[in-house]
Specification:
Layout: H1 4-11, H2 18-26, E1 29-33, E2 38-40, E3 48-54, E4 56-62, E5 68-75, E6 79-80, H3 83-88, E7 95-98, E8 102-108, H4 109-118, H5 121-146, H6 149-159, H7 163-166, H8 169-176, H9 180-192
């Protein structure tokens, strides 16, 4: 798998010399997840993070009635994990699934800790990722409480422009917290504008 994308992702926040790049890349496990394959199953302890090279992942929980609640998507150039489970070592409340056949680099939590020891600037890199995720989740919560569904959908399209072409409409509706029927009405109204 081509490593240029992940190295450019890292370079947004820290500068690595050739030795540090080589060490980082040596810790990554390339893997192809077939469509509908679970990277993480609810109830398991999360031990890895995934960086998407091609394809898409979704994280979701399933409630007692069997209804899915989508928390996030990750497309090319995005990281995904269950941070709560990875850090706390407690069972995950999330499933992470490949939406399509998805190429990823996997970094284990153990190797991430080794990376912190050998290349301390990676602590800064992952801190920035976690801060960005916290800000994005806070903004999503505020938007869900204060914005009409149509505006949330338009923001979704800006954030995840690839997702509508590769994800069933009911997944997008779940992410937005609306019914698929209501999403159809929003899409029809926007198409007329």
């Amino acid at each position: 798998m081509n490593t240029d994308l992940i190295l450019s992702n890292v370079a947004k926040h820290i500068t690595l010399n050739d030795h540090e790049k080589k060490f980082f890349l040596s810790l990554l496990l390339p893997q192809t997840l077939k469509r509908k394959t679970l990277f993480l199953q609810q109830g398991e302890v999360c031990k890895n993070s995934a960086f998407v090279i091609d394809g898409a992942l979704r994280s979701f929980s399933v409630d007692k009635e069997g209804k899915e609640h989508i928390l996030n998507f990750a497309t090319q150039g995005w990281w995904m994990s269950d941070l709560y489970s990875l850090i706390s070592k407690k069972p995950s409340t999330l499933n992470i699934e490949a939406i399509d056949d998805t190429d990823v680099f996997i970094l284990s939590g153990t190797d991430q800790q080794l990376l912190y020891e050998k290349v301390p600037k990676f602590e800064r890199f992952f801190r920035i990722l976690i801060e960005n995720a916290l800000v994005a989740n806070q903004q999503r919560l505020i938007d869900n409480l204060s914005l009409p569904a149509e505006e949330r959908y338009l923001q979704f399209l800006k954030k995840y422009p690839i997702i509508p072409s590769c994800v069933p409409q009911h997944n997008i509706a779940s992410y937005l917290g609306i019914t698929p029927e209501f999403l159809s009405k929003i899409r029809a109204r926007l198409a007329k504008k």
